[in-house]
Amino acid sequence: MNERSGAGASGGCGLDVRLWGKERGLPHPYPLICHLLDTAAVFQVLWDVVLGDGVKATIAEALGLDVAEARSVVAFWAGLHDIGKVSPPFQAQVPYCYGPVRDDPGYASMPGAEGEKDFRHEIATHWALNELLGQEGYPTVDRILRKSVAHQVAQLLGGHHGSFGKVLISKQAARPADYNPGLGRSGWSEQRRAHFEALRRAVGAVAVPQGGLPAGSAVVVSGLVVVADWLASRTSAIQPRIPAPGWSGTAAEVDAHWQAAVLAAPEWVRAARLGRARFSVTAFGAMFPFTPNSLQGDLVAHLPGMVGQRGTGLVLVTAPTGDGKTEAALFAASLLGRASGARGVYFALPTMGTADAMLPRVKEYASRALSGERALMLLHSMAWLTAPDAEPEKGAADLPGSGVEVPTATATADAADADAAGDARLADPEVAVAVAVAVADRREAAEAGSAAEDRTGGREGLFSAGKSTVIEADGWLRGPKRGLLAPLGVGTIDQALGSVLPLRYNVLRLFGLSDKVFVVDEAHAYGPWMHQLLLRLLEWLGEMRAPVVLLSATLTGRSAGSLVDAYRRGAGFREPSGAVPRYPGWLYVSGVSGQVSAARGTVSDRARKLTVTRRPVVWDTAEAAGSPVREGGRRAALRKALAPVAAEGGTALVCCTTVAEAQQTYRDVCAAFPALAERPGGVELLHSRYPADERAAITARCEAAYGKPGEGPVAVRPASVLVATQVVEQSLDLDFDLVVSDLAPLAQLLQRAGRARRHSRGPHGRPVWAVPEDGPELVVLDPLDASGGRPPRTWGSVYDAGLLVRTSRILEKCAGDGIAVPGDVQRLVDEVYEDDFVDGLADAAARDALARMDEERAAGEAAERSLANWTSICAPVDVGGDLGKLSARDAGVTEELLTTRLGADAGRVLCLYEQENGRATLDRAGRIPVPTGSRPEGCLRAAELAAVARRVAPVPGQWLRGDEFADTVPAGWGTHPTLRDLVVLRMRPAGAGVWVSRQGRRALSISDLGLETE
Asked: Which segments of 336-408 are extended strands (E)?
């Protein structure tokens, strides 16, 4: 082909600038070569300001290059990501651009090539680069392409839209155009070569790597390529840089564009807040305004020396609730982060409530201990409601042409009743229910054997600390899938676990975690499914030498060992560690040498003797409130336990197993103690089956009434009882004079007992019956004796029956001497799971019954672990040069399976209240009208959408089954993901503050007690 003026060139050595790279939303098409140059320029800046020196050195060493050469070569790769756009199917998407090219005799392709819609440009990149890089001397292995450096780079760049293709077949890879008509033939291949050479020359990437990237480094480079592409694809970045008419892509023009891109890219990256936080403070006293306690002091005394000698790694801290594990974790994070050169922290928690509560603590820590870029993100589905000018991301207009999926929030509990759905929420539709099983949620959720789900979200949320502080995340980081890229993050554990599921952009999540300190709170709080995913994530973090801090109040020794060994496996140490935790205490694992320190035991500054009263009861919760009380029943036992509160003042927590039983217990307590119920705040009810705004208001009241005392004199609190579900186990810092709980597994009972006399209130701060603050009391209502060793039917599968039997037996033994906290905790938590527990039962029938229960639990846990292994990505050691394994799903592993974990069944409802005047409102008081949708495009404004989202409530999916619950949101509201699968309940007043929606044979009601069903 010959040189051609004006529009460009289609000759063998010239660029044809008619080939466009970006067009949507632009006044004129943007030449492809310009986008490739822009992306390479952004990548170089990201390499400089985002990656640590250790990461850069690891990549360079793997490639057989020095760091400067590696920087240029990998930036060149980043620019090549869209070279597959030199193909008929892609160019044909803009007919007026494609027409002149199609009619140019210098271009040839098979008939219908432009119609190969499934041959997307990223696939074309994979096929084309395997050939181009091989021709440039990149090491190749013809028969085993996964061992070929040329193929690895091609596969990596072909995954820039979030999913890697399969390894190419050698015979087909040798003749790519014969097997892929969409590549085109003459002209097309020459233009790919021309773009390749022009980019390489401009970037200066003359070096040829001699080796491929290990799995962890490939994840880093892949993630950085995606980010560079996104930043370079913003309309605001492209518009000022569109070449003037007559631009023909000569070498001089290409060089000028490159130099301009190099000058512009630093500001693009700076504005995106993608820099590095620096761990500039390592002294505990400079981080926190108090003297370290025994646990914290032991870390201060010994961890710095260990890290200094053996490098970064993993720290496991085990201690009772309230013993300062959070500050211990942040101190450890500072030491590990400084040693590793990490760029930030992600603090992962089990529920949305715990994440919200942790945010200000991490903010305060960052302001004292960190410097550099300190953009802080709150990451869960409802975080956008707390952001300034809150509005969930609707689309990706500012992203690459193919777009990025709009996130929706999906969460689930493990079975049906689901207080859980209120807290364990996701910010990404792909991760969805697959990982959102927060433990407090999943237990309560299991009522009636189905699950509850919350799809009330929008996007990864933004936290802004205001203009007066450098700790703020804004603008670009608020977009979908970007939250983990911020240097600092606080959010739910699912945000991290999504990185090890074969979902689009899972590698971007891994990249976001790869150079941060990963802190996991409540590491004991996850069932077999999530625990197995956490193990896989720890393997990847070990491979990438990312520092990790794990916290737990009730972690079994077996689980602790599995977490430590997973991290060590990833770091290359495959033999079991034999790690055994101390309680309270901590241990350290070197990610460099694999050495595991002997666990250090510490003394708790809050040593206490927990008085445990186990009361066998007949389960009579279904009996009407105020009806005659049965001797030996739960209602009678509860009255006896709460009598001192009603008579002498003080506070009590009553923790129930299901929402329905909590609601009925609330009614019964009010009937039993009418004077208490009549006083404001005398009896409170908290669970998740409220509209979100009502639950938030109740939670705020509870925190004010039962939270940590303020400064100054403290008096005995007026008599008050909180009836609640498992949501109080982890999410709230509450303090009661007495805790009463239905039987639950021992670890959960100890968590609840941690709310008993939690804070020091001094000699005059508690009623006479609760004066010994170091002797808290836990009353356990145990139904097993009266029910033949099986839990009540109303509990469904909330708890494993075998664990309840084991806990009941242990409590029976502890009733006399109590439980020393922390002294007895580790022993008892391990004892619950001991294999020989059954042998200690004297009765043969009891042994047989428990053995059957244990077999059922073991089978269920094995099935969950197997499913996690089946659906998650492979371990880094198993990648073997094939990045396609990070996107591949086995036969039967569908998106539906990944997003509806284990057949979870859940629903979300929005109550619309039909007032007497015929007008519908969002609130029962009739003050907030139902929005009609006022935007020109027919959808809700940001404030209207937020008002709706705040009033959505989770319910078991079985409540909404059938055609009678088919009322969806009004058409004028649009199709925003926040509204997806939302069922509208039109409520009518039924008297006494109750509103009812009758649908067929089922009636749903709402009142001050939350949602209920007949």
From this structure: 345-349, 370-372, 376-379
Nearest residue to 528 via CA among 446, 411, 414:
414
Q: What is the pTM of this model?
A: 0.87
pLDDT digits (tens, 9 = 90+) for 334-392: 999 999 999 999 999 988 888 888 999 999 999 999 999 999 999 987 776 665 444 44
Contact between residue 777 and residue 771 where contact means Cβ atoms under 8 Å apart: no
Q: How far is CA 295 from the centre of its chain?
A: 28
Short-list 700, 579, 723, CA closest to 645: 723
Reported as half-sphere exposure (CB side, CA atoms, 13 A), residue 247 has a value of 22
What does R_g of the chain's alpha carbons equal in angstroms?
30
Q: What is the DSSP string of 641-672?
A: HHHHHHHH--EEEEE-SSHHHHHHHHHHHHHH
Phi-psi region of 927 (alpha: psi -120 to 50; beta: other; left: phi over 0): alpha
Q: Output the DSSP codes for 743-808.
A: ---HHHHHHHHTTBT-S---TTSS-GGG--TTS-EEEEEE-TGGGTTS--GGGTTSS-HHHHHHHH
Nearest-angstrom CA–CA distance, 215 and 685: 50
* Number of Cβ atoms within 10 Å of the Cβ of 353: 26
Q: What angle do CA 316, 319, 322 make, to 5 degrees?
A: 125
Cβ–Cβ under 8 Å, residues 295 and 325 = yes
508 CB-side CA count, 13 A? 23
Interatomic CA distance for residues 1010 and 660, integer angstroms: 10
Cα 279 to Cα 262: distance, rounded to the nearest angstrom? 29
Cα separation, 825 vs 432, in Å, equals: 34
Please tell me the distance from the alpha carbon of residue 976 to that of residue 584, in angstroms, as a whole number: 48
Residues 479/396, Cβ–Cβ less than 8 Å: yes
Interatomic CA distance for residues 913 and 920, integer angstroms: 5
Query: In 104-187, which residue ranges form alpha helices assigned H by DSSP?
Result: 121-135, 149-158, 170-173, 176-179
* Inter-residue contact 377 to 490 (CB < 8 Å): yes
467, exposed or middle or buried, with CB in 10 Å at 0-12, 13-18, 19+?
exposed
Q: What is the pLDDT of residues 47-92, one digit of tens each?
A: 999 999 999 999 999 999 999 999 999 999 999 999 999 999 999 9
Is residue 377 within 8 Å of 462, Cβ to Cβ? Answer: yes
Q: How many CB atoms lie within 10 A of CB 782?
A: 23
In this predicted structure, the answer to whether residue 425 has a pLDDT above a threshold of 60 is no
- Beta partners for residue 464, in sequence order: 472
With beta carbons less than 8 A apart as the criterion, state whether 53 and 14 touch: no
CB 21 within 8 A of CB 30: yes
Burial of 242 (0-12, 13-18, 19+ CB in 10 A): middle
Token pair in block for residue 800: 């494993």
For residue 537, is pLDDT > 50?
yes
On whether the CB atoms of residues 431 and 459 are closer than 8 A, the answer is: no
Select from 860, 894, 891 the least CA-distant residue to 432.
Answer: 894
